[in-house]
């Protein structure tokens, strides 16, 4: 059974190896474990409302859009909205569809004072397979972790 410290240490090693400025990079399984066992840990879904409606959600996640739909414009209020929803002292795990936008969000959060900002690698749906489809290779859903379709 993993421990909180082991998971966080491994996540930090991943971030260091990739020269990422935030606290760490978590697998979906690690992020789920932390969401259940680390006091005050928070998942933040940075996807658009349209994506959440179409693809599904993780029930306990806080939502703060990184980009808005349509047009995929950056959310100019991201940090303001994040600070209104999440304490800067919290262990914060950002996720999106594939882990790319959430990495950008983790960088922005870290620079805004969230010292425990983590990215959830692979996101909710994961990387595309050889046919260009998501959800068949890796990611939160592929790992069989809890999510819901509204």
Describe this structure in words.
34% of the residues lie in helices and 14% in strands. The chain has 150 residues and is α/β, with parallel strands linked by helices. The longest helix has 14 residues, at 4-17. The mean pLDDT is 94.
Features:
single chain, 150 residues, alpha/beta, Oxidized Rhodanese, domain 1, five-stranded parallel β-sheet, two-stranded antiparallel ribbon, 5 helices, globular
Number of helices: 5
Looking at the structure, what is the overall shape?
A: globular
Specify the CATH class.
Answer: Alpha Beta
Classify the beta-strand content into a percent band: 5-15%
Task: Give the full name of the CATH homologous superfamily.
Answer: Rhodanese-like domain
Spatial ordering of strands, largest sheet: 1-7-6-2-3
User: Which ranges are low-confidence, i.e. pLDDT below 50, for 5 or more consecutive residues?
Assistant: none
Intertermini distance = 32 Å
Strand count, sense and closure of the main sheet? 5 strands, parallel
Number of strands: 7
The structure class reads alpha/beta
CATH architecture identity: 3-Layer(aba) Sandwich
Rg, Cα atoms, Å:
14 Å
- The CATH topology is given as Oxidized Rhodanese, domain 1
Helix content: 25-40%
Quick check: average pLDDT?
A: 94
The SSE order reads HEHEHEEEHEHE
- Count of the domains: 1
Outline:
The chain is an alpha/beta fold and 150 residues long. It has helices at 4-17, 28-37, 49-55, 78-85, 100-111; strands at residues 24-26, 42-45, 62-63, 67-68, 73-74, 92-95, 117-120. The chain is built from 5 helices and 7 strands.
């Amino acid at each position: 059974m993993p421990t909180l410290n082991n998971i966080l240490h491994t996540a930090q090693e991943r971030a260091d190896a990739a020269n990422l400025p935030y606290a760490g990079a978590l697998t979906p399984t690690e992020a789920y474990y932390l969401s259940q066992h680390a006091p005050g840990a928070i998942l933040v879904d940075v996807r658009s409302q349209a994506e959440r409606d179409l693809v599904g959600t993780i029930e306990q996640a806080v939502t703060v859009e990184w980009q808005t739909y349509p047009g995929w414009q950056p959310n100019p209020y991201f940090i303001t909205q994040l600070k209104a929803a999440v304490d800067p002292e919290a262990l914060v795990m950002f996720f999106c569809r594939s882990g790319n936008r959430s990495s950008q969000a983790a960088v922005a959060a870290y620079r805004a004072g969230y010292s425990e900002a983590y990215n959830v690698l692979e996101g909710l749906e994961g990387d595309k397979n050889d046919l260009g489809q998501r959800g068949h290779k890796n990611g939160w859903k592929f790992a069989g972790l809890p999510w819901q379709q509204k």
